[in-house]
Automatic annotation (TrEMBL):
The modification 3-oxoalanine (Cys) is found at residue 76. It is an enzyme of class 3 (hydrolase). The conversion to 3-oxoalanine (also known as C-formylglycine, FGly), of a serine or cysteine residue in prokaryotes and of a cysteine residue in eukaryotes, is critical for catalytic activity. This is Arylsulfatase.
Amino acid sequence: MLLSTSTLLASLVAAPALLAAASSPSPVARAPNIVFIIVDDQDARQDSISTMQNVQRLLVDQGTQFSRFYAPISVCCPSRTSFLRAQAAHNTNITSVVAPWGGWEVFNEKGYNGHYLPSFLQDAGYSTYYTGKLMNGHTVRNFDRLEPEGWTETDWLLDPQTYNYWNASFSHNGEPVVYHPDEYSTDLVAERALGHIEKATANPDKPFFIGVAPIAPHSHIGIVDHTDQILFDMPQSAPRHQHLFKDVKLDYSRASHNPDHPSGASWVKKLEKLNVTNVEYIEEFYRQRLRSLQAVDELVESVVKKLEEKGVLDETIIIYTSDNGFEANAGHRRQPGKTLPYEEDINIPLVVRGPTVPKGLVDSTSVYSLADLGATILHLAGAVSDYDNDGALVPITKELRKTIDAEGVKQHHLAEYWVEGVGEGKYGQGLVLTNQTYRAVRVVEGDEINFSYAVWCTGEHEIYDLNADPDQMINLAETAVRSESLIKLQHRLDALLLVLKTCVGEVCRNPWKTVFPDGSVSSLNAGLEKRFDGYFADLPKVKYSYCDIGYHRRLEAPFWYDELAFNPKQKSSFVIQA
Ligand SMILES: *[C@@H]1O[C@H](CO)[C@@H](O)[C@H](O)[C@H]1NC(C)=O
Ligand SMILES: *[C@@H]1O[C@H](CO)[C@@H](O)[C@H](O)[C@H]1NC(C)=O
Ligand SMILES: *[C@@H]1O[C@H](CO)[C@@H](O)[C@H](O)[C@H]1NC(C)=O
Ligand SMILES: *[C@@H]1O[C@H](CO)[C@@H](O)[C@H](O)[C@H]1NC(C)=O
Ligand SMILES: *[C@@H]1O[C@H](CO)[C@@H](O)[C@H](O)[C@H]1NC(C)=O
């Protein structure tokens, strides 16, 4: 059979399951290799990725960059779980880095080990490799008892020294832990990633997935000499990068930078203005983030070179992303950290290159998340999860882009959080950041609609118009005089959040279809029509009974139920269930 390359590639992506199952070992007729590089705590908002020359040259220029890409929950282990399961955090109920709310032990208790991305990829015929950090709570004490399933070969970075840049603890394939004092963590991860490429390409019959997870630019966590005391400090760079970025300053021009008036909600609103010493500390912290990323930049170059040397660069999709964002500009008077629903905390880099991925494209309009990316990798690999996952397909290839041309891009993101915030850095560690449960939705539609909306367990609401107020300083939901149109907008945003906060599967991908089953409205913009004012005003509103640690349904009523859907024939409003 003679097919043109483009037809072949199209069918490769359209029906990967069939191709993966085909017996012919033809080098073209199979699913793509995937190299997945996930860094730790790199935000998109401060654009640190622009300081990474190799990432720019080898990934951004050669592929597609998504500027509205988000973390489902702004903290490491929960967000990684959302990716690995292609699920929203309210469906994994992994909501923290520690038990009983999250961490590797709880991941296992919930039965997720063996029912996550690598296992599904193996079932689809992939060999699977991973080096670096999997998730919090995967430790030197439990790594052999609770071995991660689904991997061909692994090199795990293990707690409690995962975030120690200078004494990494690795287990190779579940063998006893080896410490590496005085070696730089990211370089050790890079070395192992190259080893995995060697191994994977030695077996040309199988497509491969290689996960590479360095810790940069996460805070350095060391242990104070001769004590159990943990030291949460700025990231550390390789000595060869220490001289860089000496003149880099924070962006003092941003409205959110250490403002004269309090802003935000909950504990953020109670923060005092930072003193000069503290701001200077954050400035150096930020420079250290940039410096630590330079070793990752070199890692990216070495990975691309190795793939090229092995002759597989053109058949390998390379994905670069982060697990969550990070605030490091003294925004809202904050110490360095993550966990909040602001852009710094949730907006993360995503760059993809590879076969049929458009070159040099910057997609600033579609809105996707790590849960979606997990689902997309499954799709490209022809793999399937053994439960109804929540992820939509991120349009990374030309073929997926054609689908969204027909069906529309995803234009909303649900950001969730339960449990407590985490203070980082010298002045942040030890801060008690309670009352930190919220659901938030980010909506981007064309040039006009660019909102974020959050409902907090404290009863507070936040609405920001990011076109007018990119720093999220003017909370429209709490201004003294609220216009009629703003109240109407809030009713719509709240309805979207009500549907999303317990969504499963298709409802997460297409929430408007749940509100308008007849398909008459499929965007916030369309829902703004006046004739729906009464309907949206009458819907029950998202709220919490009170703030408590953990995700407890009893505190989160009311919930969406199908009878709430818009019914054009029904004149009277529905009965609100207690
Ligand atoms: C590295 O970590 C191990 C395990 O905690 C410890 O025994 C060793 O002393 C550390 N080495 C250095 C140089 O800090
Ligand atoms: C500045 O603020 C930090 C954090 O609150 C505090 O520990 C420090 O003592 C303050 N320094 C000065 C010079 O006021
Ligand atoms: C948490 O929020 C409640 C309102 O839900 C408030 O009464 C309480 O003071 C808050 N606690 C802290 C530590 O901010
Ligand atoms: C929405 O707001 C963000 C933050 O200001 C801005 O970067 C972006 O360009 C705006 N528009 C879109 C379509 O995302
Ligand atoms: C989530 O997990 C916690 C801890 O096990 C549990 O208390 C809570 O009920 C769970 N929430 C839901 C909605 O299942």
